[in-house]
Amino acid sequence: MFGIGDRLRMVKVKGAAKLFPPDEDREIPILAQFADYLSPEVCAVTVDDDGLLAGVSTDPKEDDTPFVAYLPISVVESLGDCRTVQYSKLQEVDRLGPGVGLLSYEDEYGIPHKVAFKFNPLDKPQRLQMAWDELNLLKSLPPHPNIVPFDRIVLEDVESQVIGFTTKYISGGTLDNINVPFRFEWLQQLTQLVDFLNLELGIMHQDIAPRYLLIDSDTHKILLFDFDWAANGKKRLLEGRDDVTAVVFTLYELITNDTQFTSIPHLNRTLDMVQSISEWACSLELDCDVSKFRNFLNDWVATRKSDGDLGTISQRTQLAYMAGTINRARVQCTFRAG
């Protein structure tokens, strides 16, 4: 039996053990086949040996939806200056992935907005803390042309509990599904952004990959999103997840369509694995010769290495209000309540 987050509820998937091998998330693609056709009252589904729907249950005893003790915004001082929107004001347009939806709403002036809504439906302390850290980091970031802008905090209607946040919706799609020539200026934008985050703000994204880079169809710029693994200063800084290495592997994967390195744990990846490959077999249309991309990338990596900043982040311009603005003890206590 497995639970899957969907529309802030859980749907249990039951079936033969052979359908659900250990350490493989098979339940999500199986449920996705018919999730749009399930009534909101459905708590569990049974699938046959082929993963096809064999039965549904609305029995409340089957409901494994966890209780998540979301904090009332009134007790979180760090969010006091943020704009908010009630969950009831949001209209779902589409589902972008687990815990992420495409929604629309009208603001106080009747102006329509299309946004990505991110929430955490799981009562797991680590994921809850990551969600709070990402929210507080994003709302404090200065505007940047290559970062998806923070929009609003989403509040539950009755007690004004913080259940998630919205960001501007970027319609161009991500780089892992690119259907236009890859531009040299996008690599320049990405390296400049990484330098800005690492060396100016003291932030390490720690999860840069094609799937987290969007193409803005209006500005033709790339934008980075999903900061839930980000390190702010030394807090949550993980070995092997530096952004410089991630950029190198990202560019290699994009140009060659070779995904063999994605299965290697970050801790075991080294720059030499891809930089030492004499020829990157190009399978993606580029706006200039692949040698220009590689030479620029190699020069950038060499500069970061020479400055001693490859896997570290500068402390000189830390945004003090981003680190520790939440009362951590109170948050952890509230998470465990209920």
UniProtKB/TrEMBL annotation:
<dbReference type="InterPro" id="IPR000719">
    <property type="entry name" value="Prot_kinase_dom"/>
</dbReference>
<dbReference type="InterPro" id="IPR011009">
    <property type="entry name" value="Kinase-like_dom_sf"/>
</dbReference>
<feature type="domain" description="Protein kinase">
    <location>
        <begin position="90"/>
        <end position="338"/>
    </location>
</feature>
<dbReference type="GO" id="GO:0004672">
    <property type="term" value="F:protein kinase activity"/>
</dbReference>
<protein>
    <submittedName>
        <fullName>DNA, SC026</fullName>
    </submittedName>
</protein>
<dbReference type="GO" id="GO:0005524">
    <property type="term" value="F:ATP binding"/>
</dbReference>
